[in-house]
Amino acid sequence: MKGCVQMADIGKYIRQLRNEKKLTQEELGELLGVQKAAVQKWESGAVKNLKRETIKKLSEIFAVSPGNFITNEADRPNISAVYSDEIRKIPVFESVSAGFGTYADSMVADYIPMFIKNPAEAPLLMGIRVQGDSMYPTIEDGDIIIVRRQSSVDSGSIAVMLIDNEDGVVKKVEYGRNWIDLVSINPMYPKRRFEGEDITRLRVMGLVKQVIKEL
User: How many CA atoms lie within 13 A of 120 on its CB side?
Assistant: First the structure.
């Protein structure tokens, strides 16, 4: 979220996150320790801004940056001062190749603050800005995916895959007895199947943990 953000936009964002989690307003209120009416006011944009404790809880529940819930842009650089023990800055890269190539600070396009309860996880995480619409609507062009570096994922996971040690792609991974499918969520793109020895052309680079969308 960039520039001057209105509470109405944040309200729509909260509603979107709540719907994705399949929570009712009452259920979200229970998780936050507030009444359903408070959630209704936030989602309608009827309040000027959110309390710091509410921002913290929303960020934890939805696993997104606390900056997404702050209307005053000037306050965002100070988020880490508010939650210094729980905030880590995660590097964001503009492409898969930049993120998983030879690591260099000069290739980092930006940093985003995130709640990370286990400090040991922080070095394994990175953000990558996605280009293209093959994973639409789950991941849209321009979205940032948070990826955990790891060498294997379960079938059905969305992962960053490297093909022939050159092409980095974000796909849903499905395993068979002697094949691996790289599946696009957008039905306009056919799945790619790798069988037999061709499986060795694939390499798992990381698991997509969450998607951060621009409002």
Answer: 0
First to last CA, the chain: 6
Residue 111's DSSP bridge partners are: 91
- The tens digit of pLDDT for each residue in 77-115 reads 444 444 445 677 889 998 876 556 544 455 788 888 777
Q: For residue 137, is pLDDT > 70?
A: yes
Name the pTM for this structure.
0.63
The DSSP annotation for 6-61 comes to -HHHHHHHHHHHHHHTT--HHHHHHHHTS-HHHHHHHHHT-SS---HHHHHHHHHH
Its CATH architecture, for the domain 7-82, is Orthogonal Bundle (1.10)
- Match domain 88-212 to its CATH number in 3.40.50.720, 1.10.1670.10, 2.10.109.10, 3.40.50.300: 2.10.109.10
Q: How far apart are CA 174 and CA 156, in angstroms?
A: 5
Please give the structure tokens belonging to residue 67. Answer: 């900056």
Give CA–CA dist 144/170, Å, rounded. Answer: 12
More confident residue, 65 or 74: 65
